[in-house]
Every structure is written in C-alpha cells, then in structure tokens.
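Weekly puzzle thread! Below is a chain. First person to post its structure in token form gets bragging rights.
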Amino acid sequence: MSFARRVSRPLNWTQRHPAKTVTALFLSWVAALVVYAKFTEHDRFNAGFEAAVWEWSQVGENPRPLEPQEREKLVESLFSREAPDRWRAAGKLASWREPAALWPLIATMQDGAGTGRTCLISQALGKLADPAAVSALIEAAQHRSNVDLRVCATHSLGRIGDDGAISFLERRSVDRSVSEGDRTVAISALGEIGSVRAMPVLQEIASSETRAALRSFAASAIRQIELLQGDAASNLLGALGDNGDWIQDDWILAQLPRRWNGHIAAHLNEILRAPTETRCTPRVQIMALLSAKQAVEQTTIESLALSAGRQNRWLASLASDPKSADVRLAQSNL
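Winning reply:
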C-alpha cells in the first residue's frame, strides 16, 4: 500500500494542477531540444560546410555530371503524383546543375500543381542559370494569381543574369499597376544582373519614386552595378562584410568564381585570418569556396586552429581534412 500511495501522489498532483503539469512538460521538452541542439551542433556545422563545398564545386563550366540512370530517374520523378518526390527531384537536379533538367523543369513549372511546387521549380531553373529558361520565367513572373511564383520567377531571372531579361525587368520595376512587392523584386533582379543598361531606369526610381522602399532597393541595385565596373574583383572584395548598402554577401561571393584569380584567393584567406570581431563576414561560405577551389593557405588553417572561437577551430579541422569533395558528397547524400 505504501508503494501504491507513492505512485498515486504524482498522478493526483497532475489531476489537481493540470495547467502546471502542461507547463512542466513543455519546459522539459524545450530543455530536451536545447540539449539535443547542443550535442548535435558540431555535426550540423560539418554537414552545412560539406554541402557548401559541394555547391561551390558545382559552380563553373564543368560541374560534375549525374550518372545517366540517376538523371533519368530524377527527371521522371518531376512528373510524380507525390509532391515530396517532385520537390526532391527538382532540388537535386538543380544542385547538380543538370543541363538535361532544363526543359522538364520548364514543362512542370506552370502545371497548376500548387504554389509550393511552381515556386520551387522556378527556383531550380534559376539555379541552373541557363538563359534558355528566361522566356518561360518571364511568363511565370506575370502569373495573375500566384504571388509566390511571380516572386520566385523574377528572382530567378536575376540569378540567371542574362541581358535578355532586362527589358522586362525594367518595365516591371516602373509599372505602377503591379504591387510594390513585384516592383521590388524586379528592381533587385536588375541589381543581381549587374548590367549598366539598367542604370537609367534605376536612377530614375532612386531619385523620383515616391515610395521610400523602392528608392532604397534601387539605390542598392545601382551600387551592385557599380561594383561590377572597372576592377570588379577588388570592388567586390572591398564590399564584402560591409552591409551599409544592403548588398548581401552571398551575392558578392557568387560573383567571385567567374573572376577567380590569385588575388581573390589571397584576400579571402586574409579575411579568414583576421579577428572575427573586426569584420562580420560569412566565414563558412568563404572557407567552403576556398576549399572547392583548393586555395586554402596553410597559414589560414593554423590561424583558425589557434582561434578562441570553436567554429573557427572546426573550420580549420575541416579545411585540413584530406577528404575530397566527392567523399563529402557521398557522406552528405546530396
């Protein structure tokens, strides 16, 4: 009976105080999540770095191709009735920059399957960066009811960076009959393309537009174009970590592979060796880019290994790991 009373006491307490019981259970669940996140932080950091190295290694003229059977299976999955299968296939084809995926992705972009799918498909087309997708993306960017598709397609036009989209984006950016969101993403896409052809329209918006947000985005787009003029590599490196013009570091880093040289590699190594408090930069992405280009200097690894910051030490360990990007790919299941 004594044992039974001991067991019944907690049960009786929970019955008398249901609100406190729920609160205690919730706090226990939160604490468990915090502990789990702490113990898995290093593994998640490593996985993110490996994925970033793979992404950078696929940027360029000669990305690693998919095996023919795998390619055929993924393209077939784009037409699956199961949405998760379609999403996974589109993501993987885009990650591998698979050229054969272009027309199947275009064919599935506007099939009425829903906002999530069509937006994701248009994002995949942007990642392929093939100018052949521009006309289909321009059509998608004008979809009457699917706001997400319009935004994603317009953003992809900027990511592809083809001048063939400039005329449409210029008209869109000054069209007062469309929403401010549509105009904003069109202005941003012009900045991502970085062509001086767009300067007159952007300057007009920056100087005379009544909406402050649009003026701000136009000013940022103008700054992006200016960075790509003259010694673009030095301009971009100088702007890295300086968010005063609201220019994302991811965009700056994306411009560097096509201009890659020893000066860029040396400057990025120098940034990583600098104290973290002196400059706020995407250190993981920088190290991943250097790793993909096999341009990490030994002095950089040694400096990071002696850093007080644990993530810096993790980067040093990853950069000194002799495993190739192909092995990292196999481990990360990309």
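Puzzle host: Confirmed. Bonus trivia for everyone else. Residues 18-57 form the longest helix (40 residues).
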